[in-house]
C-alpha cells in the first residue's frame, strides 16, 4: 500500500489527483498557518480542463465499479482505512499545519477518518422484499447513482471528507472531491495515497476555489453533489443542481441550542457543555452555539462555566489540546465582528473577549456573554467561534420555541436525568439529531442530517447510504 516517509520532500508536495495519477498544475496558491500566519506549501489550482478530465475518468471507471460486489467494495474501503493508518504521521502533520489544530487533535481526526471506512467494511444495503402475495413479489434494490461531486469544508477536512468518499465507494459510485481552499493539503495527500489501493478514476481530488465548486455543480457529467458549508452557498448549489436534476446532500449551518434543565447535576453537566461549545474553538457544525439554562440554576451554572472555560487555554497544547485558533482569517474576522457587536450594544462579556492575545495567530480565547437579547446577532446567527451566549429560561414551551430557529435544524443537546422528560422535550426540538446528557458529536453509525435551513438529505450510518444510491423496485409476477 502507498506510504510516504515523513522526512522526504515528496510528503510536502501536493497535486491534483486525476485518473489515478498526480497531476501538476499551471497555477498554485498557498495557505496561512493559523497559528503563525506564515505561508505553507504550494497547492495546485485545478483548471476547467482538469475538471473535465476527472469527470471523463470517473465515467470510465464507473462502468466497471458500479458492477463490483459488496464484498469487493468492502475490501476496498478496508484497504483505504489501512492506507490512512499507515500514513497517520504525515496526514496528522499536514492537517495540523493547515487547520491550526494540536497534534493530538489532528491525529484523532486522522484516526477517526479511518474509522469511517472501517465501519462500512461490515455495513451495506441489502435488497428488501417490500411486498409479497400469491401474485407478485416486490423487491427494492439499491443502484449506484454515478459520479459524485463532493465539496468539503475546512474545519474537519479529513473527517468530513471521508464520510462522503466512503459513502460513495461503498454504494458503487465514483467520487471527485474538492477540498476547501483554506485546507487543501491533507485531502489532496490522502487521495494521492489512496490510489495505491483503488482503481484509477474511482476516487479523485481537484483543488480550487468557489469557481471550481460552481463548475462542479453545473457539470452535466456529475450526477450527485454532497456539500458541507454555509446556508447561502448551499442554496446556490441547490439552484445550480436543479438544471440537471442532480441528487443533492447539503449539511449546512447549525445554530444549535443546548438546554440545561432545572434538575441537572451541574458538576457533571458544565464540563460537557463547555466541551460542546469550545472544542476546536467552536468550529464544529454541531457545537453548542446557544446555551439555555433554567433560571433556578443560572447563576451557579455561569460561575462554573467561567471556571471550566479556563481549561481551554490559548496556544497551550499540553494543557489544552482540544482548543485551537480560528482556522483562517475569514472566520477570524467574522468572529471579531461578533465580539465588536456585543461591545457596541453593551452586552455583558463575563469571560474572554480579547482578540489575538498572543499577538500572532488567529486566536480568540473562550468568550462568554451573559443574557444577550434573543434578537442579538450572537443568538440569531451561528458564530462558529468560541463565543458562547448563555441565556435563561423558566417555561419548557418557551425554551423549545426559542431553540427552534430556522437555522438550528442540525442538532441540539439536552441535559436532565429524567429520561422521560428528555424524550418529551427532544421530540419537540426541530433538529436532525438531539444529544441527551452528552455534548454534540456525530457518530459514524447514526444517521446525520439537517432540517429546515440546516440541510437537505443526510449521511452516516446504514441509512445514510440510501442518499448515495437510487432505489429500483423490481415487481416480479408469480406464474
Quaternary class: single chain
Helical stretch count?
Answer: 15
Mean pLDDT: 95
**Which percent range fits the helix content?**
25-40%
Low-pLDDT segments, ≥5 res: none
> By helix and strand content, what is the structural category?
alpha/beta
Shape: globular
Can you offer a commentary on this structure?
The chain contains 15 helices and 20 strands. Helix content is 36%, strand content 21%. It is of the alpha/beta class and 479 residues long. The longest helix is centred in the first third of the chain and has 18 residues, at 48-65. Strands 14-15-16-13-12-17-18 form a seven-stranded mixed sheet, with helices on both faces. The mean pLDDT is 95. The protein is globular. α2 packs antiparallel against α4, α3 crosses α4 and α4 (103-119) runs parallel beside α5 (157-170). 52% of the residues are buried.
Keyphrases for this structure?
seven-stranded mixed β-sheet; 20 strands; 36% helix
Summarize the structure.
This protein is α/β, with parallel strands linked by helices and 479 residues long.
Amino acid at each position: 500500500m502507498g506510504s510516504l516517509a515523513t522526512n522526504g520532500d515528496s510528503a510536502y508536495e501536493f497535486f491534483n489527483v486525476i485518473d489515478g495519477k498526480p497531476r501538476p498544475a499551471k497555477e498554485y496558491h498557498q495557505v496561512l498557518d493559523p497559528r503563525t500566519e506564515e505561508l505553507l506549501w504550494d497547492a495546485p489550482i485545478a483548471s476547467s480542463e482538469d475538471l473535465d478530465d476527472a469527470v471523463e475518468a470517473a465515467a470510465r471507471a464507473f462502468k466497471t465499479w458500479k458492477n463490483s460486489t459488496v464484498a469487493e467494495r468492502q475490501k476496498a474501503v478496508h484497504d483505504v482505512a489501512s492506507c490512512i493508518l499507515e500514513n497517520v504521521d504525515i496526514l496528522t502533520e499536514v492537517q495540523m499545519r493547515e487547520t491550526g489544530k494540536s497534534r493530538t487533535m489532528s491525529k484523532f481526526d486522522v484516526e477517526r477518518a479511518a474509522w469511517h471506512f472501517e465501519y462500512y467494511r461490515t455495513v451495506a444495503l441489502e435488497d428488501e422484499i417490500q411486498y409479497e402475495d400469491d401474485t407478485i413479489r416486490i423487491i427494492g434494490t439499491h443502484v449506484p447513482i454515478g459520479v459524485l461531486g463532493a465539496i468539503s469544508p475546512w474545519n474537519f477536512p479529513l473527517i468530513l471528507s471521508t464520510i462522503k468518499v466512503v459513502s460513495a465507494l461503498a454504494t458503487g459510485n465514483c467520487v471527485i472531491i474538492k477540498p476547501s481552499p483554506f485546507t487543501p493539503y491533507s485531502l489532496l495527500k490522502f487521495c494521492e495515497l489512496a490510489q495505491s489501493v483503488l482503481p484509477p478514476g474511482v476516487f479523485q481530488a481537484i483543488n480550487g476555489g468557489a469557481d471550481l465548486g460552481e463548475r462542479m455543480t453545473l457539470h452535466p457529467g456529475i450526477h450527485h453533489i454532497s456539500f458541507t458549508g454555509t446556508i447561502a452557498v448551499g442554496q446556490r448549489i441547490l439552484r445550480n443542481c436543479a438544471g440537471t436534476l442532480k441528487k443533492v446532500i447539503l449539511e449546512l449551518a447549525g445554530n444549535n441550542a443546548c438546554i440545561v434543565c432545572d434538575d441537572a447535576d451541574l458538576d457533571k453537566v458544565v464540563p460537557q457543555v463547555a466541551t460542546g461549545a469550545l472544542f476546536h474553538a467552536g468550529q464544529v457544525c454541531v457545537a453548542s452555539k446557544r446555551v439555555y439554562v433554567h433560571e433556578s440554576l443560572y447563576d451557579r451554572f455561569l460561575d462554573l462555566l467561567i471556571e471550566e472555560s479556563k481549561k481551554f487555554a490559548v496556544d497551550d497544547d499540553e494543557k489544552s489540546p482540544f482548543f485551537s485558533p480560528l482556522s483562517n482569517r475569514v472566520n477570524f474576522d467574522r468572529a471579531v465582528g461578533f465580539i465588536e457587536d456585543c461591545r457596541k450594544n453593551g452586552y455583558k462579556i463575563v469571560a474572554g473577549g480579547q482578540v489575538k492575545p498572543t499577538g500572532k495567530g488567529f486566536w480568540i480565547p473562550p468568550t462568554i456573554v451573559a443574557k444577550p437579547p434573543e434578537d442579538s446577532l450572537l443568538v440569531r446567527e451561528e458564530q462558529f467561534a468560541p463565543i458562547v451566549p448563555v441565556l435563561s429560561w423558566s417555561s419548557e414551551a418557551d425554551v423549545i420555541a426559542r431553540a427552534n430557529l430556522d437555522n438550528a435544524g442540525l442538532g441540539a443537546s439536552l441535559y436532565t436525568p429524567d429520561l422521560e422528560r428528555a424524550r418529551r422535550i427532544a421530540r419537540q426540538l426541530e433538529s436532525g439529531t438531539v444529544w441527551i446528557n452528552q455534548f454534540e458529536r456525530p457518530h459514524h453509525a447514526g444517521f446525520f442530517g439537517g432540517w429546515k435551513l440546516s440541510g437537505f438529505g443526510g449521511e452516516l450510518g446504514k441509512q445514510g447510504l440510501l442518499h448515495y444510491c437510487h432505489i429500483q423496485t423490481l415487481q416480479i409476477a408469480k406464474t
